[in-house]
Amino acid sequence: MVISRRDFLLRTSGFVTVSAMVPRWAAKGAGLFEESVEAAFANRTLVVLELAGGNDDLNTVVPYTDNLYTQMRSRIGVAPGSVLPLDSRLGLNPVMTGLKTLWDQNQVALLENVGYPNSSLSHFASRDIWHTADPLLAQRNGWLGRWADRYIAGNGNPLSCTAISQSLPRTLLSDNVGVPSFVNLASYQYSTDGSYPGDRSNQIRTFLTQNGGEYEIMNTPDTLSQVGEDAIHSSDMLQTVGAGYVAGGSYPAGTLGAGLLLIAQIINANLGARILYITFGGFDNHATENRDHDPLLTAVSSGIKAFFDDLDAHGKAHDVLLMTWSEFGRRVQDNGSNGTDHGTAAAHFVVGNAVRPGMYGGPPNLSSLDSNGNRTIENDFRAYYGTILQDWLGADSAAILGPGYPNLGFLNHGYA
Amino acid sequence: MSVNWTRDSAAHLLRRAGFGGTPSEIDDLFARGLEGAVSRLVDYDAIDVTAYETSLAAKNYDLTNVRGLQQWFLDRMAFSPRPLQEKMTYFWNLHWTSGISKVRGTTLILNQNKTERQYAVGKFDDLVVKISQDPAELVWLDNYLNRAGRPNENYARELMELYTLGIGHYTETDVREVARALTGWTIQNYQQADNYNGATFLDNPAIHDAGSKTILGQTGAWDGLDAIRIILNHSDSQGSVSGRFLSAKLWSFFAYRYPQPYIVEALRDVYVASNHSVREVVRAIFLQPEFYEAHTVKTWVRSPVEYAVASTRMVEATTDFATASNSLAGMGQVLFNPQDAKGWDWGTSWMNTGTLFARSTMANTMCTNRGSNGTRFDPNRLLAGRDASTAEKVVDILADRLNVNDVSSKIRASWIDYVNANDDGSRGTWTNTATNVDKKVRGVVHLMLTSPAFHLA
Questions:
Q1: Is B392 inside a domain boundary?
Q2: What was the ipTM of the complex prediction?
Q3: A272, A322, A357, B168: which could join A30 in a potential S-S bond, CB 3.0 to 4.6 Å?
């Protein structure tokens, strides 16, 4: 029996067929994209910052008055006297002055002990769980990809969901919404032969034909065949965003600072981007943690501060919310290599004008650890996501995540 | 079910077991028949590499920096007369890769690559032991710091999760116990004075936890060799766990992801019967009829490394791989420097708008290089001896060479239109002139190299 391409796709687990797509590009100007969201939410942008590798939140938000912290982190702990206190029990790592300033300006909600029951200690399983919001790993698409399929698919804007990343983050994987991904705009265009500039338009036209979904691919989502079309159209829109741009914040050197600057440029160019995603890695600090972790926290803190300064300078901060996530926290007891092994629950930040500032969840309870020496969960990460879906994106969170996750209240419901 | 062995089958086999063939290589493999062709690739010890190794050495790639290492390995993948040996070395590089950013010593990374090549199709157990004692791996996943009483479970976890068993086939207790068994496998002479290049393996009993451990249900005073033996001989109700894990991964790499259970079971049986021989599992893959079926052909998304190697070797470019090496970051795969222990995802995750442009830029650099340095090819040579009198014939010659002759008639027509087109977009007529060859042959090769049909192998 001959198995057809489509049959094979349907039979093989792991891949799903992507139906013929609505053309993503309809020659519309930004602002005319049709989206099925209420007007009050239509101008809002969500920035997702992934701290890849498993951030040691105990050295980020330090329970500095807890003797158990001092004991179990005797080799690599943050000195209690050095923290930037948030209250009488928790303080930021002393390198995080930028975030502390934002905290003092009531721009930060701190969610403590976020995770899910029976946490996987595998980077890769836990990362996929966070990406898909599904501990059973039965969902192919990401949680924001499912949002995109439901609310913005077919809106014609190739930049609705954009990743400052070398690869497409699974959080944004969807059936019907393409995700431009890049780390550098200068090289974000189709090169042709400089010796024959007159031939360029012929090349571009042919490239669009051969990448227009026409090539039938077995065992692979049709999105591959469409990537070229997305690329050309998003490139056309993006090529101008950096020209003459004056940053209103001082971004730190390095990839995170450069990426957040690019995100600010895209937001300030009014291109209709709704989700902007950035990955920042290096947090798997099994050894020499202080040497490796502190510079990462510095970049996160000063990068977020510069980003919001820049948005403020352009009058855009009102419409932007930033959230962090990481696949897990780390073992409370350090590992003897001056590092930490994989953990479970961790603290995350939500930053922006729309937050109801403060702490959501108590200090970590270091006296009640599981059989692996890891912390217990206080806030389910799906409640974290759900609150953002409801109150920032105006979405039906139960339809995307399933029912039963409480709104954690860290956003102003009536924000407008 | 049997294999209908055709020239296209040989081209497919060369794309998968190697990095794509030139027309003469495909002809040669086709003439050998299925078993002969597979044996030619798999039993590669019979192929003399002396001349190639001499020519490679003469290129003097700078093996003291990672860029030179990349060029050296890319050259091997493109031009070694043993394509499967390099493809398997590349497989192990993806499976077990260590990153220069953490390891620091380029010699350690080079030696790991040599180990992966030496044991590429040997007994799996031997490779697992060699890599577990490999200085680059010991640094990469911190086992060199793993001491009695102060265990570091990083390598122990990935040894089972990523390298031998897969998630779900061990417990958190097993992770801790294997970590204890691996205490004492460390390195010596790892120091800044020689840029971390002098480290060697050290089995240090003074920091080994000699106590009793229970690993996958077996209790004893296990050491690292015991732990690896127990892991690789572990069976459940469906037989050898490592056999299923490795078979599924090899099938996923050479054929397609998510193999049907009966295929995994057949390969598992080969693994067990051959005493864990990687060579025999790979041979069985290439002899499996499903390997040649329509749902396998042209479904593998070339990684950036494979794309760089295939594009240069299929146009028979002259190259030092400097352009390829420089292009790896933008394409999303810095060889010898993955972001984490899992290495890179395969498949469609390679392809997004940014990496697509980076591929097109690398291809364009090659296609438009008219100088005498860097990666370049002679467009006249691609048409030499062939009737290139019409745009149709030009497109068909080049599409056959690049193995993109499977496109729809609409895409073929768009290439023909391109070859005929005037600068203002109007329809002209191709004539076989020096200017047209320089413009349109280079141009259409670039288009073909940036089409989905070439991103897939």
A1: yes
A2: 0.92
A3: A272
CB spacing of B348 vs A201 below 8 angstroms: no
C-beta atoms of B354 and A336 within 8 A: no
Picking from A124, A207, A224, the nearest residue to B450 by CB comes out as A207
Contact yes or no for A147/A133 (Cβ under 8 A): no
Interface of A with B in 219-238 (CB under 8 A): 219-221, 223-225, 227-228, 230-231, 234-235
Between CA B231 and CA B223 the distance in angstroms is 12
Token pair, residue B145, equals 């710091």
Alpha-carbon distance of A61 to A377, in angstroms, equals 16
Q: Is the pLDDT of residue A23 over 80?
A: no
Q: Which of A195, A215, A227 sits opposite B453 (nearest CB)?
A: A215
Please compute Rg for chain A using Cα positions.
Answer: 22
Q: Which domains does chain A have, with CATH numbers?
A: 45-188+239-401 (3.40.720)
Query: Which has the closest alpha carbon to A249: A297, A311, A184?
Result: A311
C-alpha to C-alpha distance for A291 and A287, rounded to whole angstroms: 9
Structural domain for B344, as ranges = 304-455
Per the domain annotation, does B412 fall within a domain?
yes
Q: What pLDDT digit, counting tens, does each position of B26-78 carry?
A: 999 999 999 999 999 999 999 999 999 999 999 999 999 999 999 999 999 99
- Phi, psi torsion values for B173, nearest 5 degrees: -65, -45
Residues of chain A positioned with their CB less than 8 A from the CB of B157: 121-122, 342
Task: Using alpha carbons, list the distances in angstroms from residue B252 to A258, B195, B291, B452.
Answer: 36, 37, 11, 20
User: How many domains are there within chain B?
Assistant: 1
Q: Which residue type does B265 have? A: E
User: Which helix (H) or strand (E) segment is B250 a member of?
Assistant: helix B241-254
The minimum CA-CA distance between B145 and chain A, rounded to whole Å, is: 6
The answer to whether residue B103 sits within a structural domain is: no
With 70 as the cut, is the pLDDT of residue A32 above it? no
| Residue B382 pLDDT greater than 70, yes or no | yes
Please report which helix (H) or strand (E) contains residue B237, including its range.
Answer: none
Measured distance CA(A233)–CA(A231) in Å, rounded: 6
C-alpha closest to that of B17 among B121, B126, B122, B128: B121
Ramachandran category for residue A376: left, alpha or beta (phi over 0 → left; psi -120 to 50 → alpha):
beta
Residues 6+ apart with CB under 8 A from A228: A207, A208, A210, A211, A212, B356, B450, B452
pLDDT at B379 over 50: yes
The identity of residue B253, as a single letter, is F
Phi, psi of B226 (to 5 degrees): -65, -45
What does the pLDDT look like over A38-88, one tens digit per residue? 667 888 999 999 999 999 999 999 999 999 999 999 999 999 999 999 999
- Band of pLDDT at residue A242, cut at 50, 70 and 90: confident
Give the Cα separation of B75 and A292 in Å (integer): 34
| B278 occurs within a structural domain | no
Which of the four pLDDT bands, split at 50, 70 and 90, describes residue A130?
very high
Contacts 24+ apart (CB under 8 A), A385-390: A385/A133, A385/A143, A387/A411, A388/A46, A388/A321, A388/A323, A388/A350, A389/A147
B2-41 exposure pattern, b = at least 16 Cβ within 10 A, e = fewer: ebebeebbbbbbbbbbbbbbeeebbeebbeeebeebbbbb
Lowest mean pLDDT among A154-158, B99-103, B184-188: A154-158
pLDDT of B340:
78
- The pLDDT confidence band at residue A2, using thresholds 50, 70 and 90, is very low
Q: Do B140 and B99 meet the contact criterion of CB atoms below 8 Å apart? A: yes
* CA–CA dist A263, A260 (Å, integer): 5
Q: B43: which 2 tokens? A: 């039993």
pTM comes to: 0.85
What is the H or E stretch that residue A276 is in?
strand A275-281
